Structures are given as structure tokens and as C-alpha cells.
Amino acid sequence: MRWRCIASLLALTLAAGSRPAAALSPPEPARYEQAAPSADGIGKRYMGREIAHVMGWQGAAWLERAEREQEERTDLLLPELRLTPGMRVADVGAGTGYIARRMARLVGPSGKVYAVDVQPEMIRMLRDTAAKDGLTQIEPVLATATDTKLPAASVDLVIMVDVYHELEFPYEVLGSIVKALKPGGRVVFVEYRAEDASVPIKPLHKMSEAQVKREAGALALMAQVEQMGGAVAAIEKGFQKSEIESSAYRIALGIDSGERIVVGLNRFKAASEERYEPLRVDPSIEADQRSRLEALRARRDNAAVERHLTELREAAAGSANCLVPMREALRELATVGEVCGALREVWGVYKPQEFF
């Protein structure tokens, strides 16, 4: 039954080089959207995807069915993981420990397998099955909906088999996985392919490779920023600028090749171009604005403005709150240009470096 072989095996190195030095930013309410749930989902959407219902511990027997290896071809999956004795790995959403037990035999007694699940009933079952098989290298871990509870920088590989699409908080769980990875660690997603319509699995229980890469890629970018020391350090290294330019280049290539269609540019173009006149600003507008500014400065208390601008410079040079003197300067009718000029005197002007 070919359709039941592993649908998608995607290994992403989310923590290549070094572990993130700090925790990822806290969850934002706008990250998820709520809508009326479908028959197979919880109504919660992440990056355009509705999250599927989780399988309860009552279905544990299905995870241990005799025909599972032949149906899902887990015998093909395990060699792809390239596990060796002594490795420390984690099975997130381990259930009864079907995959965890097989990985435990490959990493051997000197290795470690963290079998992670959010259901206490599953934890009890996998602990019993591991003990029955004498696999002392398996350590059950009771997780929460947002945290795998794995030790920091502790694992070489994390695998999720037919699990990720059911995570209630995918961003937060993936964030905790990234923190648990050793430098160069891998995250493996195993899902039924949404691209294959012949697979008789409900749509919400499938994922496309593009969707997995999109969701995991967002976390990978965050991890890279954290490794650089935060957003400011990343800006100074030209990371954001480089990513924007790379994205623009990929889009341009797609447009040029026709893979990305832009109406009016590379498809469905008009027979003749419409003439247009560029916007030209009337010079009298500038003169009018200058006279209004001169009138403002003539009627305001310029001594008070300068006093608050001096306080703003002092705050900017130290560690005081700049908003207070800024507010007072604006209250005395200082202009935005004057406020920015005061800050510019202290902080200078940012000039991005060029990176190639």
C-alpha cells in the first residue's frame, strides 16, 4: 500500500552554528487567528492553516498495530535519520513510544531518547513498554501545549511523526525545540503529503512541504537573529537587509521565468502603455510651509523649546527616558525636525554597511 509510506521527510537545521543565546520572543496574540472550526479542526489557524484535532490516548492501540511498519514504512524512515550509538534524540508526540523504542535500539545504551508527550496516559504507556523491552535509555517527558520541557542544548535530533499538524501552539513548541537542539542539530517533520491527492487522509491531517518550510523557516530566522545577539546586532551585521534583498532577487527570478505571475507585468499585459504625468509639487506649497514655520517660531517660547531640547540631548546621551523631555519640547511647539536634530547630534546617523 504505497500511499501509506512516509509522506514527507524534511530535515531542517534550525540551530546550525551555535545555540540561540537568549529565549525567543514571547508569543504574540496576533500570531494565531480564530474562526469557526471545521469538522476535523479546532478553528485555530496558523499561517493560513487550520490546526487539526489531536488524537487522544484512547486511540493508543492504533499506534501499536502490527501492520503499521508495512503501512507507514517506518523501516525506510529510520535509516534516513542517520542515528549512531551515543546520540541524544527526542521523539516529540511520542504516544506509546513506537518510534522512540526503535530509535533507542539505534542510539544504544550509551545514547538517550527523550519520549515527549502532553498526555499523562501516553507517558504511562510508553514508560511501561520501554521497561518491558529493557530500554533504559528512554526517558519519558511530560510536556505542555507550549513547551516540550526538553533540557537546553541537549539533543542532536528531534523528530515529530504525524504530529506537527496537531500542535495547538506550533510556534511556541518549535521554539522550545530549537532551544533544546545542540549546535547543528536537526528537526525532522514526518507528515502525509498534501500534494498527493491519492492519499486517503483527511486534508487537515496532511501538510504540504511548502507549508512546513514556511512555518519552520520563520522560526529558523528568529533563531538566527538570536544567535547574532538580537535584532540590533543583526541590523549592524546587515542580516535583515540581506534577507530582504535575497527575497527580492528570488521574486524577480520567478517573475522573469514566468513561475510567478504578475498581471500587467509578465502576463495579461495591455496592448499599449497608458501615458501618465509624474507628480510635480507646486513650489508655492514649499514657500507657504516656510512662512508658516517662521510664524510658529515667532510666537512660541523659543527659550523653553531650547531648554527641553537640551534636556533631550542629555537624556539621549545617558540612560534617562527620552520621551519625557521630548514630550515637553513638543508641548512648547518644537518641530519634529528639531527633535530629530537633537537626537541626531547625540546618536549620529545610521549608515548601513554593504555586505556581499
CATH-defined architecture of the largest domain: 3-Layer(aba) Sandwich
Counting helices, strands and paired strands, the structural category is alpha/beta
Are there runs of 5+ residues with pLDDT below 50, and where?
Answer: 1-28
> How big is the Rg?
28 Å
- Average pLDDT, to the nearest integer? 87
| Count of separate DSSP helical elements | 13
CATH class of the largest domain: Alpha Beta
Assess the beta-strand content as a share of residues: 15-25%
The CATH H-level homologous superfamily of the largest domain? Vaccinia Virus protein VP39
Largest sheet: 7 strands, mixed
Task: Tell me about this structure.
This protein has 356 residues and is α/β, with parallel strands linked by helices. It has two domains: 2-56 and 65-227, Vaccinia Virus protein VP39 (Rossmann fold, 3-Layer(aba) Sandwich); 296-347, no CATH class. The protein has 13 helices and ten strands. The strands form two sheets. Strands 1, 5, 6, 7, 8, 9 and 10 form a seven-stranded mixed beta sheet that branches. A three-stranded antiparallel beta sheet has the order 2-3-4, with no helix packed on it. Helix 4 (98-107) links the parallel strand 5 (88-92) and strand 6 (112-117). The two termini are 50 Å apart. The relative contact order is 0.11. Residues 1-28 have low confidence and may be disordered.
